[in-house]
Amino acid sequence: MAIMSRLVPTAFSAFALQAAFAAIFVPQHNEKFYDLCGAAGFITSTLVSLRLNRTQPNPLVLAPRQLLLTAAITIWSARLGSFLATRALKAGGDPRFDKIKHEKGTFTAIWMLQAAWVFVIGLPVYITNALPAAAHPPLGPRDFVALALLTSSFVLEVTADRQKSNWRAEKNQKKHDENFITRGLWGLSRHPNYVGEVGIWTSMWGLASASGALPWPAVLAAAASPVGTYLLIRYVSGVPPLERSGDKKFGDDPKWAEYKRTVPVFFPWGGYE
Known about the structure:
This is DUF1295-domain-containing protein. 67% of the residues lie in helices and 0% in strands.
């Protein structure tokens, strides 16, 4: 399919950038900038998809849908990357990599996995940018529904992160002695920031596919973004390790058992396990 072949430069840039970062940080056993480098990967890959994949004479001419998706992924990347990097620097590192960062081969592979993540999760944006601006029809009702979901999901993620940061700051200031947060959005879901993340990529895919300009194989390929985000967060590297950590730290605390019994693990309308 022609449109997918236009993504080769974007895929190459995603892997090349993370390989460069790995060459710098793997010998240093330094994981503090891992998430920031991932954010940089999304931004540079998006720029490559805009610049190198253009088929029209003027590569600066973009359809409204392309502008919206490019702006959305740039804002999301800059916000989340800086937030996670700041948190890692304040904490003196990222506990996820305590052992891995001293294993050169494994740590290098983790950077390459990040490159694959950057490419697959960003597919709705990259594929949309691979089409000429003229191929995109004007924005319609489905686009505005997707934009509403995108905006609300971004606000959800930012608010959840801010509430937890404020909770930590208050704990450090001895304003409370709570072992874990249960207030605000964290009283509706045990992982509301991740719910927002899934919503963001679902709406990105919705905005990319709403025009009808993309061939169905491309629409299905782009669906790997929200599906992959959900599966990764819900069952692999997001929720499970945090739940295990909570059980290890607070397993004997009746308040933790009550929190798990009354607050859904993910979606507010979902299950508790």
